[in-house]
Fold these 4 entries.
Entry 1:
Amino acid sequence: MNMNGGQALMKALENEGVDILFGLPGGAILPVYDPLIDSSIRHVLVRHEQGAGHMAEGFAHATGRPGVAMVTSGPAATNIVTPLCDAYMDSIPMVVVTGQVPYAAIGTDAFQECDTTGITMSVTKHNYLVTEAADIPQVIHDAFHIATTGRPGPVLVDIPKDIVDPNNPRSAMEWYTPDSHDLPGYLPNRAGDSELIRQAAKLISESERPVIYSGGGILKARAAEALLELAELTGIPVVTTLMNRGGFPDDHPLCLGMPGMHGNYTAVTAMQESDLLIALGARFDDRVTGKVAEFAPLAKIIHVDIDSAELGKVRRPDVAIQGDCRLVIEELITALGEIGGREAQPDRNTWRSRISGWQERFPLTYEQSKDDELLKPQFVLEQLRDATPDDTIVASGVGQHQMWTSQYWKFNHPYTWVNSGGLGTMGFAIPAAIGAKAGRPDRMVWAVDGDGCFQMTAQELVTAATEGFPIKVALINNAYLGMVRQWQEMFYEERYSEVYLTRDVPDYKMWAEALGCVGLRVESPEEVGPAIEQANEVDDRPVVVEFRCEAGENVYPMVPAGMSNSDVVVDPSQQDRPR
Amino acid sequence: MSAPSTPNEGGTTTLVVRVENKAGVLARVAGLFARRGFNIESLAVAPTEDERFSRLTIVVGVDAAPMEQVVKQLDKLVNVVEIRELNPAASVERELMMVTVQADPPIRGQILDLVRIFQATVLNVGYGEIMVSLTGSPSRVDDFEDLLRPYGIVDVQRTGKVALSKLAKTAPDPLAP
């Protein structure tokens, strides 16, 4: 079938199962927006290209399917660099198509030209500059394969205008459906080594104080059920990193919650005191380990990861297994069965009682606000958690509100927590929530955002309003760049430098209404519940609820940067308790 | 990737990398070193017997230990097919040098003595200069360059080393599977 490159691009995307595309047209990508009209793919018109990228990420977080964004060349390509880097750090499958100036004009400083593949080389799993229209079907097929297999990640496809422009003879091509990949350097392996898995099973059955350290790889490998089975078979407690909240149910008795810099005391301390860490799809991030040299000093390490470059990157494992988390866990369960299953596991009652002792002495805590004080953000989040369905999808920005959400929410289902972990991208919440809602229209989607974050990407609420994505935003307005303020309070002698945002400018309620949303403002504790109820009932447009919160609240516990996890700072009210 | 090998002298590591012969691949490889502040001491690139692939010989001024992570990251590049860390004791290394030396007629003979001793080749002769080439192990090329330096090197270009593994010295065991 004869067609032009633009038509081929649309057909190739359709063939990959793409049904929604987040984007914004411009000069170089213009020819592709014409065949889009005839395509089955829904296009969501964003207001800023960064929004398109984060929406694609949110879609992928919530569905496990690759998110797709399409933008033009030059400034549009540079605007989507942040989402690419975010997706790269958090292993999010995503395909981004960028327009490029005509092939012959590349390198001439043409209008809206930039070296997109050069700029994005270090923030993509792979990228392509397509030079011939005939390459489009194969490149798109390969791009989706690379983005979704092995360790998932973003792939960028840069397409010069001439090969998609029907008025240019270089766009003429014969359609073909690629049926294979010619990628001799890319052969991702999924199965773990059986002998190493047997060694891991043996280490587990000898351990008195084991902890399962579960990371984002659990969700990527769709291994939540396998993890549950492993934990219940062995009775080993599970910590869920920021990237794996929901990958193991918070209401399960074996769940210890989030470890790390703002993890709860028990999760941090159980890892620190363990004699065996079973790291499953986790990467020993500095926010989890604290000072690496003093991290879990007595623990042997079993490290399972699809990416062999993670094995030994930070901490030398005793057993390193390269493979897909789900397949390896399933084989590990079999191997544990062969050596006696549950009955062969040592008595770990002492370990369990130490853990429950920490849980009793050091629960998450905060002081309720007094009569004339503003709201406590933790109180708002508890109320929101309790007033929304159990399978609500929660997206967050980056900062104090993100940590409180991760701490106080009860994540009992996988793929309900959408956040920017590795890159820590402020402004992630609103576009990511829109992408999640696009992928899961059946679910209630709440974005929890800070006032600093909100001001970075609020314009995408226009996208939500006009494209019909009735997300809800809980805006924690504490008038500050709160996490930076907290660090200045704790580590810079309360010398506050450029962190005050003002409380009343902008007027968030009016701004929300101007963006096409319902805007609500809440100032006192008794208004919190009714406002959430009111927001939950709106389903024809987005809602922004501004919660006016106490400015001076700090996130505890906290392991100060560079310190050992043994020196975790607990809430001031708990500081005198025996550890 | 092969087992960790003995690092080269002077804290350098030699990698032999087979890559797809495509635009931009060298930039991807070089970028991984640049990002970490590792300097590439020498680099030789050419297509292999199968023209879909190129072979890179890279000498990096870093010990084997910090290289481990780079090698793993290199292996993750979609266009990289195979990486081997080269053990100098188990490989044959060669490098080509072209050099132009000051050689006024009265001292031309001294230079030609060195050319004979090293079995180098005279490529071009001018009135006061002579251009010669030498192929040999990198250390032999170093020696030659050192000996020519006092005469005044006008211009020099070395290719960077290339290498292949040494061959087996015994007949294969006929009973082996």
Entry 2:
Amino acid sequence: MDNQKLFVSSHAPYWHNCSSLSAKSYTIMLATLPAVIMGISQYGAPALGVIGLAVSVAMISELIMNMVMKRPVSIGNGNSAVIGLLFAMMLPASTPWWAVLTGAVVAVVIGKEVFGGTGANPFNPVLVAIALLMLSWEGVMNFDEALVNYNLGFLMNYPLTALKYFGVSAASDFSTTDLLMGRQSGGIGATFGLGLIIGGIFLILRGMIRWEISLSFIAGIFVTALIFNLSDPEEYATPIFHLLTGYTLIAAFFLTTEDSSSPVNLVPMLIYGAGAGFLTVLIRNIGAFVDGVVFAVLIMNVASPLLDKIRPKAFGKGIEHA
Amino acid sequence: MIKRPFFSSGKLQLRYSLENEVNHDVKEIALSKKVTFFLKTTPDDLEKPSISTGKKVKTGEELTLTSGNRVTSTATGEVVDVSPFIGYSGQSFISLAIEVEKQDLWDDEFKKVLDEKGPKEAFSHLGSLPGIANPASFADPENKIKTIIINGLDRDLLTVTNQFIVKTETEPLAEGIKCLKKITGADRIILAVPASLGAVAGKVGADVKVIDPVYPNTVPSLLIESTTGIQTLPGMDLGKKGIGFISAEAVAALGNLFTEGKTPLHKVLTVIDKNENLTIVRARIGTPAKEILTALNIEMGQGDRLVFGGPMTGKAVYSEEMPVQAETDAIMIQDSAQIIPTSDDPCINCGECVRACPANVPVNMLIRLLENSLYEEAEREYDLFSCIECGICSYVCEMRIPIFHYIMLGKHEIALTRALEESNG
């Protein structure tokens, strides 16, 4: 037996499709690039600073938590880098360093690690951090206030604030092309609609995100906004305006589709997406907040495990097994 | 290895290898010096062994244990070793090793019974045949088999054994189908084949059902459902449902047996080498894998993997001495560099498995329970027993969790609990 060759034994299957979490994370980061590059080109070094700080703090937070919780080091899978990046994309370029640091730590530690790490988070970690900043330091997340010193050659009012406080007539100052081409104020990586759509379609084609969620979210926003708009065009903006402003598109392709906090079955995915879209417009049109995306998605995150109970009947269910 | 395509938003496409893509030159493997058989056992067999070392065995002889489980010897020689062997999922076997003499002496017991008492009686005394370990179950009078499904495609990827039989052994297959009808009284025989074998299959006297050669269409539960509409689960007694499920190779072997009166000894195997080139070989049942690998000049090294069966459902073995058994359709060798290790990372709830599962099992929830040994809950809440054992969940898992392994462990643990409950009254 001494000279016997030792073979690797394991359970079937012996093939794997070679997908991995790190590949997914890096593909998502690649898909954000059009929007991120546009943001950096508009706001310059401060935007790059915010992104760099957010990503590095997010990764270091995960590393520290790995050590504290005596878990294997998992920052290599890129999940916290994605969280940091998406978090930075939603911030104004002028966000002070302490707010970026706080948010990134909250996103990774409270949003994800305390629940057990990647895959165990009930909420989208990015949105947990954004919600915290919105509620704690209103000025930081108020785009009109934060970006007051920037003049980029287009209308620098935050479109959703304009809509909320000055009505549809103010909203109609923004042309659809401007909104689509990133000529609007907002988060670093959240304003370039076309870039986000291209990134999102790339992710859908690559099979990295679920089109069912993205599409139903967009449909939810469109239909709800359309109903409001038809009921009173003087009071409520058009569905296109809602689709291209605020966090709508970044949420459609990068936030609602986060794996852990979204459902996996077809019907639940559709309800989840449509529900988030519906709540978003509801909060924007008759709620207290300027942009409803953050809380709408967080609320649907809570509902996700329950929604996932709606599932097709399993094979052979009801027949007696041996 | 079929990898995830760059653009992969569509449905998973794992295509079976087809017989016409493979060279039909069959490599015959010479008679080995030693053949080994595994027989399923009950505790009785170990307490009161009916076979002991030194017993002289003839080719074609039925070796029967105290429990009645039997195997057909494929060589003449002397039993040199009888020892217990634990197989997959804790199943207990007796391994019988026979030192082989060059000259085959044929046992004529089967022929005698066939001539004196007719095919039905002869059939119920049958040991094993290439492609089926326990053919006698088809003659069980308690089973009223109405429909027999013959799998003329193979159960796993990269395997062409049964397709090759349909293509090359059409006459024995037709003969075997006649026998099956006679013995079981089944009124419907369905032969499942890929479209390329449709014309050949039409000649054998069975209803031909063309199957799209995409995995997991030929996993037994799915094949039975697509041909008859009846849902069955693995581990279920198909006979009680009036269904017989058999491979094309076993039917052809049956045809040969009844026309010649001699048990076929050779198993056709697809050997999958490290580069996934397929070779068809014929070896006697009981031949150690090593002899086949040597004959094909396949060198295995430290850290490689040897699998009996295909890439999705095969069983990895730890030694080249492991013998080919009646139901071994393929032998696969993987180089250490090709092995993708599984991980102990937790599920990230991406849902790939749920969307790929052909049985609609909520795998994402199931795996959470199984990882924490909550087997009863897994069965009750998340359809553990609806699993049809295709292995696709593990194949697509982004975190590389050995989901299929966990599922089989869960089923095994529940079976143990049930057995314990029964024995305690």
Entry 3:
Amino acid sequence: MTVNTENDPLLLIRLQGLTKDYAVGPTAVHALAGIDLEVRAGEMVAITGASGSGKSTLLSLIGCLDRPSAGRYWLEGKLVNSLSREQLARIRNREIGFVFQTFNLLPQVSALDNVMLPLVYAGLTGQRGRQRALQALDSVGLARRARHKPSQLSGGEQQRVAIARSVVTGPRIILADEPTGNLDSRASVEVMAILQALNDQGITVVVITHGADIASFCSRVITLRNGQMVGDAASDHARRADQVLVEGPKRREPPEEECDEPD
Amino acid sequence: MSQTEPAPATVSILPPLESTSAPSPALMAGQNLRTALGGLLAHKLRSALTGLGIVVGVAALLLVLQIGAISQQYVTAEYDHVGANSVWISLAIQPGTSKADAVSHSPLTAEDVLAVQKLPHVRVASPDAMAPFPASAGGRGGTLAVDGVYPAIQSLQNLSVAKGVFFTEQDEASGAAVAVIGSRFAQTRFPDVDPLGQELRIGSVNFRVVGVLAATSSVPDDPTDDSVYVPFSTFQQRLGRINPPVVMVQVDDHANVAAVIAAINQTLDQRHHIAAGQPRDFVVMDNSAGADDNVQMLQTMRLVMSLIGFVALLVGGFGVGSTMFMAVRQRTREIGVRVAVGARQSDILRQFLTEGAALSVIGGVVGLIVGTAAIFAFYVAYRNALLGHDFRDAVQAHMLPSPAILAIAIAVPIVIGMVFSYLPARRAATMDPVRALRDE
């Protein structure tokens, strides 16, 4: 792909020779060995690969949680490499929403307070913040669970709270790291349905997954191996999660190999 | 757990936030305080135990400061009783001479007292000769400390008579064998009879008790309550002791003390034939120097005790530090999440500093309450005991900490809390978020 980075408003993420090394004792381990990747606004991308293939590292770099050892990263045309910590914090707050495998909700506060957390760092608290957080909870069908603590919610509900948290500041990108890894098959599909619905509204979604099942909900599947991109396949026939929910899964086995313990 | 809520059929997204600037410090501070209290409440026992260190520290500091304030007021009050207007003349003991030599060679005589009495600004002067004598009273024998004084001693030592009268100038002039006794002496020697008119044998002379002093009640073991006062002339002539070791002088006003001291020096130099440059055989001292010395000593004591209080707080501070390290360790994931959703390093740093300070301040407030309660309990338990009214007044006046002490007792734990949670907070703020998010 050769696109003019500066002038294409739809080119959201552009990685050029992105490399990340970790020092393990005296030797350096290449977690990422030169990734070139472009993601356009509105895409729904799955990144797959075995453990240690570098997919989580890639997500951390795209999410501005980490800096690359080499290579360049443009986000919405801005060169991320040159941004200050404060600017990166602002990007994480406004442009990017994170969804994690283990939900990462704060256990001691309510669902609503969890969803409000990014707004606190955006300077929006009080009634307006609460209102917005409630809207976000409502959009994932959990307005009635606003006062519940995470421990009072099912796994699927917790992940939906996490998704509400990720969208509450109105970001353009959602980065989801194994979002269904701790969920049973139905909850997994529900979560993917919400991510697809958000994608339908124009939010760019990047999902890391081991499972081909989950990847099949995405219109583009990128495969990593040993820190390198070894596959980049687009598909016009991504499965619709909402349809799977209506029809019921065709197979009874869990959607991911790793997750064979029913909740 | 109730029935799982169904996933929504459609999802609407929120518009991007308007481009607001970074949150205001005040807003963040409020938020941090909320988070801090939540964090502390999440580990009630741990917070309570750590807070206890601060409680003890602040209570100790408060007590030390309060005890200092109480003793200062008490000592000042005591000196006010003796009178800041008092001047003493005593014999100077030259190096190489024994006290006996000094007494026999350079006497302070009744005439000296008279001469001093005539000086301007001198209200009264009285010899105060104290010596032990074999004595018996109320059928019991023993040794008794007897004071030979002028009746003027009453105003010099703030003595008041509870029963009977003080002996008079006339008794002094005639060398009457009369005695005025202290309240405790009266109680112990004449427990069952009215001491007035009773006989008191001192040496070989029978004295008649004409008065009983009121309890001084300023100090628990004030020797005044055990004393026996007799006229100075009787003391000299009939008990066979001459030369008062001390002459007490009361000046009309504190401002004139220096002038009176100079005048006494001049008069006694003349009377004792002491040429300029020669060492004097007497010393004139005033009370204020003693008071100043005592206040200075008290201040030193306060300083040392305050240091001990601070050390106690410091120990509490170490507790806060280690608890905060534990909290940061335990909440590694939370830190990762906060960073992921947009917290800046400074936000994380402030959050944990706030938590450490909050822990300390809560401990501090409880410590203030505990310390104040301790003083209150002390007051309630001992107000009717043998403490003097000056002491009681001092305690009563300092029952509640003064604003200055209050400020110290609140500010110090805030600072200690922040200082000791700085390192843990910094560790939290500089944590690698990627690793923090994967923390097990």
Entry 4:
Amino acid sequence: MPASDAADGDILRFADVAFSWRQGDAFRLEIEGFAVQRGESLLIMGPSGSGKSTFLSLACGIVSPERGEIAVAGATISDLRGAALDRFRAEHFGIIFQMFNLLPYGSIVDNVLLPLIFARERRSRASYDGDPAEEARRLLARLGLESALHRRSAPTLSVGQQQRVAVARALIGSPAVVIADEPTSALDRDHQQAFLDLLFEEAERAGATLVMVSHDATMAPRFQRTVELGSLMRQN
Amino acid sequence: MAVVRLALLSLWNRRLTGLLAILAITLSVTLFLGVERVRISAKSSFADTISGTDLIVGARAGDVQLLLYSVFRIGNATRNITMQSLHEISARPEVAWVIPLSLGDSHRGFRVLGTTPDYFEHYRHRNRQPLTFTSGGPFDDLFDAVIGADVAAQLEYRLDDPIVVQHGIGSLAGQDHDDMPFRVAGILAKTGTPVDRTVHVSLEAIEAIHIDWQGGARKPGPGLSADQVRNLRLRPAAVTAAMVGVNSKIETFTLQRFVNEYRQEPLTAILPGVALQELWSLVSVAETALSVVSAMVLLTALLGMVTMILTTLNERRREMAILRSVGARPRTVFGLLVSEAGLLTLAGVALGTGLLYLLLAVLRPAIDARFGLHLAIEAPSGGEAISLVAIVAAGCLAGFLPAWRAYRRSLADGMTIRL
């Protein structure tokens, strides 16, 4: 599907994209056409080593494709370079990793406020009701982290608590897209469910599109759409 | 600003290693500045070894040689000045005062100087300070001696203790002027000059102890007793050198020319300040070596800091990836590490400077009393301020190495968190 044919409601669009980490690398990601709609919740499945992290790196502009076009919220990020790309990522993406999402120093409120250092628009949105730190505390409270924890540093929290702080950080200032890279893999099953509940609820409240990658098929029913990364890849 | 705050928080998280790096820089900065202070103070103390004296006159010799034996009591004069010449110089209209100096004897390793009581009035050191007595006063009797602070301290002499002067500078048996012992009449306060290591007696006393001597050995047979000597009219025929003060500074050169062109006897007159500077230039190699060593110590401390930052980079890879994911530019990662190095160095420089002043304030009286070295407590000089700024700049520059590595890595790692 060529990019020009995509609907205006697309928040993320890949068109004829090719990328490899190193010249002549055995692994090469090639995606002919792929789009995510605004407000959609999407699960991208794939076994480890299938290029999920590479796909996310491309989507949020940590790396630029060798060829093709990637558009996010109407902007062609594959044309952006350097500082402009970093600024764009800061403004439009909230990113949650598998684990170790947080800086070991500073309080968890500091961690939640981190993206606002680099994203002016998100900062002004987060300051709408006053102090951004206030907004951070509100988000943390909604995610079940009581105020007694807010002054603590990340390493003193449980893994589950840390992942919820990461959600608050991803959502502060309402970015357009929340990208989650196997965010539940470090949690046990009970906590996984509770975590996903919170993530869906807060992403919806913030009006963010949720894109998650995982190798775990059991959570597929919760998403509006599930795709296999392998099916997106151009067949050689 | 936010980046500096991040750097501070990150440093606080690694405060033990950070503090050690700061400590190393602090100590090396203190050493560096301290060496500079001591160097400058030593130089000015040295230049102030003798002040208030306009000319030093001695037998024809090199300027430094004359200075060495007349002021520092190092080495010997080749010849003496006759009293005749000295009288002629004293009679010049430019001359305000002349103090004869007669050297050649010693007391247990300390030089004995024969002079006049005027010496205690006209000898000036450090900022034209006169000599002061901790006890007693100038010599009065023929066999009175005034000893310097080091002599008193090392030989544990008190007022009225007896002293036997040795002939010459070595200590050979049977070469003592033991027939005529002296009495300690005064002890001088510490000056940090060769005066501290000198036994002062009157010019007449030098004559008196040599009255039974001829050609460097004692005449055989029983000599004169001390009381017999007291009744003699002692007139020294020659002295080793003389300190001269002029009425007006402008006349110094006129008098110097007169002495240097004196016909009856080959003489030299030197300006002590100029000769002191000449002498200092001889030891300035050691001075430079000292500065180089302290600069090396400083360099080592900065290298230690860079090593510290480099070794933490591995464990901070995750930190860098997180920062990149929230939108930090590679440049920010670079700036983070450079400002970290800069902050460590700045803290080290500030603490090191503070420590220096603290040490100066605490140790200054002890150093002054012990070594006669007057350390000035004053704001850093222009040169020192430039050095301090240069150290901070060097610290930031040193941070470029780990910063560049982190920068390259953060580009290569992308969003994957490698552990």
